[in-house]
């Protein structure tokens, strides 16, 4: 899939899955806006893409801040003239006992992970609607929206909210030809893949732990303009792990 003459904004793109998405879209011809709070790594990511001859721009953004999000969208349009695709990838986790989690902890996770998807999608949609071309949004949730470990309440709530928000905004923005979809990654290794154990891979019916390019491929499908009948969907990309029954020995 090619994305020539397409402008893609990716939040949380300085590291991990976000960086993998930035590299993937840039290699396929897109003008990529790398957005992140981490200005050092964000600038490094954008510079790395440019060194490979690809089009990239770093715009700092704290997705908890409504003004930052507006600036991100306005500056993108100022630099590239359009917004075609938004990938809401930025997120944080706070794994604490329910008895230790503060209101501030809870609000930080929900505001970073879920509220930001609403705000960023709304502000991008302003420009997508104005252009008359529509656009595509992908929200990154998690398989933890469907199953949990102890002490993951805030993270699970935020990721579940993203799934529900996705289908709600798909319905609201459909008349403007803006598609909104959601991906729930499973175990996607962004560190040292070589250090994984055989038992890590064997938990997956696919036979391996995932990598960022697995999520990128799903994003390409959901944002390809030819797939204009796909909206409001929740795509689980986890190597089948959530479908496998695992009994403790």
UniProtKB/TrEMBL annotation:
<dbReference type="InterPro" id="IPR057326">
    <property type="entry name" value="KR_dom"/>
</dbReference>
<keyword id="KW-0520">NAD</keyword>
<dbReference type="InterPro" id="IPR020904">
    <property type="entry name" value="Sc_DH/Rdtase_CS"/>
</dbReference>
<comment type="similarity">
    <text>Belongs to the short-chain dehydrogenases/reductases (SDR) family.</text>
</comment>
<dbReference type="InterPro" id="IPR036291">
    <property type="entry name" value="NAD(P)-bd_dom_sf"/>
</dbReference>
<dbReference type="InterPro" id="IPR002347">
    <property type="entry name" value="SDR_fam"/>
</dbReference>
<protein>
    <submittedName>
        <fullName>3-ketoacyl-ACP reductase</fullName>
    </submittedName>
</protein>
<feature type="domain" description="Ketoreductase">
    <location>
        <begin position="6"/>
        <end position="190"/>
    </location>
</feature>
<dbReference type="Pfam" id="PF13561">
    <property type="entry name" value="adh_short_C2"/>
</dbReference>
<keyword id="KW-0560">Oxidoreductase</keyword>
């Amino acid at each position: 899939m090619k994305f020539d003459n397409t402008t893609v904004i990716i939040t949380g793109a300085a590291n991990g899955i976000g960086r993998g998405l930035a590299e993937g879209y840039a290699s396929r011809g897109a003008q990529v806006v790398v957005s992140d709070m981490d200005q050092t790594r964000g600038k490094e990511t954008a510079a790395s893409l440019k060194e490979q001859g690809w089009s990239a721009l770093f715009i700092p953004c704290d997705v908890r801040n409504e003004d930052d999000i507006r600036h991100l969208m306005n500056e993108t349009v100022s630099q590239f003239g359009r917004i075609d695709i938004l990938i809401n990838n930025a997120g944080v986790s706070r794994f604490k006992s329910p008895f230790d989690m503060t209101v501030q902890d809870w609000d930080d996770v929900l505001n970073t992970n879920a509220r930001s998807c609403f705000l960023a999608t709304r502000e991008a949609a302003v420009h997508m609607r104005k252009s008359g071309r529509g656009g595509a949004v992908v929200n990154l949730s998690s398989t933890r929206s469907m199953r949990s470990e102890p002490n993951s309440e805030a993270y699970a709530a935020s990721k579940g909210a993203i799934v529900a928000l996705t289908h709600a905004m798909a319905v609201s923005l459909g008349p403007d030809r803006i598609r909104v979809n959601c991906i729930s990654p499973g175990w996607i290794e962004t560190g040292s893949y070589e250090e994984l154990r055989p038992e890590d891979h064997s938990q997956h019916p696919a036979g391996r732990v995932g990598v960022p390019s697995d999520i990128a491929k799903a994003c390409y499908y959901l944002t390809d303009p030819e797939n204009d009948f796909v909206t409001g969907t929740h795509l689980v990309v986890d190597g089948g792990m959530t479908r496998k029954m695992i009994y403790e020995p």
